[in-house]
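Batch manifest line 284
LIGAND: zinc ion
JOB: complex structure
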Amino acid sequence: MILEYHKIDLPENRWTRTPDNFRRDLQRLWDRGYRLVALNDVLDGKIALPRGTTPVVLTFDDSSPGQFRYLDRQGEWRIDPDCAVGIIEDFARAHPGFGKSATFYVLPGADPPNRLFNQPDHATRKLAYLATQGYEIGNHTLWHANLSRYPEHVVKNQIASAQEWIQRHVPKYRPRTLALPMGAYPREVRWATQGGVNGTAYQHDAILMVAGGAAPSPFAKSFDPYRLPRIQAVEHDISTWLTYFERRPEDRFVSDGDPATVTIPAGTAAKTRQFPGVRVVERP
Ligand SMILES: [Zn+2]
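JOB STATUS: finished
ARTIFACT:
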């Protein structure tokens, strides 16, 4: 599952998960044996989890304020314990082994409040924090452009500019993935996978959609990195998918505990995608 969050705020609605509900999501995942993994590691086939656990990826779109907020505590800037980053960090501390990763699809050039979490004085500190503390920054275009509507040069400019603006805060950081605003593909997918404008070259290893359900295992041939489905993190969809995997455990990715091997059902080798350094073992 690649979960897709938007606002973490009050009250709960279609595009908002409350801090308490987000905590409850993490608890439900933990209780059912899910562990956080970084999307880039999934793309690289590096799933280093204890035997019997299942990877889950968190993504946050649109850099709204409740995703990452600093509070002034008697002159000291602290991460708000009710923002997404604060909640993930507290949960990870209280549940060793859960992991601490998420990909933030930020909007560097959007209007407030969606411009880089809406605290301009802290934008650099936040992006640097994400880049160095186990999180990932992803491209979501400069200001949430619907890429299906524009010619090639505008599409490429939106994507390259977003990366350039991110790199003003974290020099040389390379966003490896792009989440399509509104799930809209440009006329040619390759415009979004790589390009260059005014000296800024981008290359994406994956493109994320806004819906589509659970993603295939990265070790499955059906895994298409340029069409990665996500599950919108609203009550109904989260509950539905958790229940689905309880009823269909054979569809769930369960770690064999060894990052150097992937264990597959006997007879399914032809459907398996290979990664250098990962040995495929057929379960008898
Ligand atoms: Zn968005």
